[in-house]
Write a structure and sequence with these properties.
Shape: globular
Keywords: Ligase, RNA-binding, tRNA-binding
CATH superfamily: Nucleic acid-binding proteins
Radius of gyration: 14 Å
Structural class: alpha+beta
Order of helices and strands: EEEHHEEEEE
Organism: Quillaja saponaria
CATH class: Mainly Beta
Number of strands: 8
Protein name: Tyrosine--tRNA ligase, cytoplasmic
Distance between the termini: 19 Å
Number of helices: 2
Helix content: 10-25%
GO molecular function, one term: ligase activity
Length: 102
């Protein structure tokens, strides 16, 4: 945006019609720019090295992961059965349950 390169991403949950859309929100106390992870607190230590922008583009990582991103019945962001975490807790949306994330 405005000629400034960014490696950030806004993620939102939406209903099947994409009429209702809500941004995902990190919990209070999350550190801006920190790396999120999926799974338990123990799994944070076992993350692979982050992919480079070139690897992400060539391997189409987003395209392969996005279909599995959803919110659960409690509005918590999930990758399959794994919770999306920050150091302060799980990432959520306000009210969209069992919604797709993009």
């Amino acid at each position: 945006m405005r000629g400034i390169k960014s490696c950030g991403m806004l993620m939102a949950a939406s209903d099947p019609t994409h009429v209702n859309v809500e941004l995902l929100v990190p919990p209070e106390g999350a550190v801006p720019g920190e790396r999120i992870w999926f799974g338990s607190e123990d799994e944070k230590e076992n993350q692979p090295v982050a992919a480079t922008p070139n690897q992400i583009q060539k391997k189409k990582i987003w395209e392969s992961v996005q279909p599995y991103l959803k919110t659960d019945a409690s509005c918590i962001a999930m990758l399959g059965e794994h919770v999306m975490h920050t150091s302060a807790g799980p990432v959520m949306c306000r009210s969209l349950k069992n919604a797709s994330i993009s």
